[in-house]
Task: structure prediction
Amino acid sequence: MGVILDSLHQVGVVSRLTFREAQRRKMMWLGLILGGVFVALYAVGFYFAYRDFQRTLSSGYGAWPAELFANALMTAGLYVISFLVIVVTVLTSVGTISAEIDSGTIHTIAAKPIRRWEIVVGKWLGHALMMTVFTILMAAGVMLSTRIISGYGTSTAVSTVAVLVLESVVVLSLTMLGSSLMSTLANGVVVFMVYGLAFVGGWVEQFGAMLESKVATQIGIISSLLMPSEALWRYASALVQEGGGRSTIMQAFGPFVVVSRPTDAFIVYSVLYTLVLLFFTVRVFNKRDF
Result:
């Protein structure tokens, strides 16, 4: 029991150091400020768009229910948040291991009475907590703005935000594995390329589902298994659309189309995917010489 408590303490220490490092580099504050700017822009844009929409309804030319319009714009806002969360996740964690190895800082940490796996798990937990807070604040800003201005709210808000948090954690785990294997620059390039492949694969799967092409659908599924980020966004988007149905604008623009929705089992797969990547990160870091 004492060993477990000691390990938890060490992990907590590394997590706090990770927070302090993010504060020292002002990465966390910069992300929060830019996120706040986006939420403010979304709120202003949504206000004027919704006001014009109401004028259209009052003139007798409106074809959509108000909640469909609000749902469509909220989904668009959450789509941008999904992308921003991934970018911030990669930029804040891309050098969490490799940069400290290159600078020699890792010698100071590893020389203390702390196990290497505790360093990795502590860093992962610190970044995961930061991104969880960031994601919740961003998503809550968009959803609350929509609710205050239009009165529309989705009953799936909690589950939607949870999936977006899982998306950031998946990207974090891949980034940390890359940071234990490659240089900071190479890691950033590889992670964004893998994310890009998953993004394209998601489109291919959607078109394959619409055209009933098994090959295209299977290509998209394989890309989702290699990198679940895009499939997790589609799952979150489907949750949002459950509350307001699908509108014409959603069906017209690719990012909001959910023709092929991932199953609930894919959420379990994404959690296991994250844990497996974290396990391999620990193994690689244990074997590294520095």
Observations:
- The chain is about 85% helix and 0% strand.
- Residues 151 and 258 are 25 Å apart (CA to CA).
